[in-house]
Amino acid sequence: MRVFIENDYEKMSLRAAEIVKQQIQKKHNTILGLATGSTPIGMYNYLISMYQRQEVDFSDVVTFNLDEYVGLSRDNKNSYNYFMYSKFFNYINIKKENIHIPNGVSKDLEKECSDYEYNIEKFGYIDLQVLGIGENGHIGFNEPAELLETRTHVAKLSEDTIKANKRFFESIDDVPLYAISMGIGSIMKSKRIILLASGENKAKAIKETLSNKLTTKIPATVLALHPNVDIIIDKDAAKLLNT
Ligand code: PGA
What we know:
Blueprint: E1 2-6, H1 9-26, E2 31-34, H2 41-52, E3 62-65, E4 67-69, H3 80-87, E5 99-100, H4 109-122, E6 128-131, E7 153-156, H5 159-165, E8 178-181, H6 184-188, E9 192-197, H7 203-209, E10 229-234
Parallel strand pairs: 1-10, 2-3, 2-6, 3-5, 6-9, 9-10
Antiparallel strand pairs: 4-8, 7-8
Helix pairs in contact: 1-2
């Protein structure tokens, strides 16, 4: 894993956006894996500016989002579908039919998961996957557990994640308990992965991810098995690394 320690959130975001831009310049029909949460918002803002300056064209880009809450429809402000359109897709020239986000209100969640996985496979897997990381080391909603799911699945959110995500909801009781998430295998089949982290609250998870030890209790540690991962973090998230 290559590690890039940037001075601050803006620099972290810009480096990530540059990587995405270069990937699309290299392959106009890139299959992009995307993440939600606070961390990638800066990267999306830079990509929107790059698009406005005509440095990048999303017209042939295909996207797959990592996850979606079960029970939240696309018009719910807390859904990841809503997030992606309001933070990114509404401002670039991506085609609607090229956007894939799991449907959290599907009548048949199992089928939704297997169709989603099949669709990623049909596109030949993801060229560049953008990841955040939870304070507990989760990637997507692959939470610390004895067993990790390899394929897209319905995941139960951990207590830690419910607490971390409650800031987006009116009350903790409104945070969904389940989500559809790509599995560890869906993520690991990506040709290239960039993981972003900002802030001291991520420092422990980053140290553990880079510990060269693998444990399902810190799902991000599996990234050590992947041949092409960039960990792009700010100084605060790097605080516990011996640099
Ligand atoms: P955050 O979430 O970007 O909002 O910190 C990251 C994650 O939980 O994966």
